[in-house]
């Protein structure tokens, strides 16, 4: 295995050093409170009668109500700064957590923030709620787009306008998922490995996967970690939020490969090795992106009422509903240890009051 790993620029040097060395030399700013804690969900595990469930609190990364984008933005904002940008542009849905955390990160580093947000049917919401309220408080400029213009078209328009006005915009892609965003979760996997050392083995990481950068980072980080610690063999299971696995899996592998190439990682079987770590379940797409169904509603209340932990209506609610179903169907069983990654998003709860209404509860 190890002999296959070498970096282009150091081919003559001794074969092996720390696999994270190149990654640690990339520009990175400080945004997230790390390491995030791993907690045991004792009450909920007992209630469900299945595996021991643990939770990695990436909702507590600390950037304007937290979430997984803080880890990505440490590398993405550093890229913007090293390109001498004076503003960033990114895109997302109306209730995008990524947009909100980008607005916060930009504010912290003195960059203006332009958000291209999707308004269904060309109708932006008339009231400011959830993440959208926070975007405004954080000082972002919002540019609405709709079905007629894909994000990329509107981003290009905003970019051209900013350049014409004498600005230096830096584009952060949807979800922060490019090779640099991916690094945030490669580092997170090293963080997990350090926390897991000396503990009984975790069987599976479970989390919501959408634009794929989080999963790509976990896969790359696991690959790098296992080069020196082959006993860490926790499976990495992404619960797809909005794409069929046949679309999401190649996207994740592509992103992991692109990040690996940014690190000059080379191995004959690199793509195969990374692809082999990509596991996706797409059984929980429900009514589509951001459509809250019974399963999400139940999962949100279960975690809130057994553990006092808030998950979100779009991502973690769906992913946790998937985990609960997999437990009920005996895919995860007593004696196993599952680590659920809480990737954040609870600020969106306040924009989904109707969908989360308690009327059906006695
Ligand atoms: C963005 C997001 C995800 C998905 O992460 P990707 O890297 O886009 O796959 C999961 N959970 C929350 C709360 C998010 O905001």
Q: How many domains, as an integer?
A: 2
Provide the CATH architecture of the largest domain: 3-Layer(aba) Sandwich
Shape: globular
SS strand fraction: 5-15%
Low-confidence stretches: 1-11
- According to CATH, what is the topology of the largest domain? Rossmann fold
- End-to-end CA span: 58 Å
Q: What small ligands are held by the chains?
A: pyridoxal-5'-phosphate
Largest beta sheet: what is the strand line-up?
2-3-12-8-9-11
Radius of gyration: 20 Å
CATH class call of the largest domain: Alpha Beta
Helix content: 40-55%
Largest sheet: 6 strands, mixed
Q: Can you give the mean pLDDT?
A: 94
SS content category: alpha/beta
Q: How many strands in all? A: 12
Element pattern in H and E: EHEHEHEHEHEHEHEHEHEHEHHE
How many alpha or pi helices?
A: 12
Protein described:
The protein is an alpha/beta fold and 362 residues long. It has two domains: 2-67 and 178-351, Rossmann fold (3-Layer(aba) Sandwich); 70-176, Rossmann fold (3-Layer(aba) Sandwich), CATH 3.40.50.1100. It is 40% helix and 15% strand. The protein contains twelve helices and twelve strands. α3 packs across α7. The relative contact order is 0.16. Pyridoxal-5'-phosphate (PLP) binds next to α4, β8 and α8. Pyridoxal-5'-phosphate binds next to α4, β8 and α8.
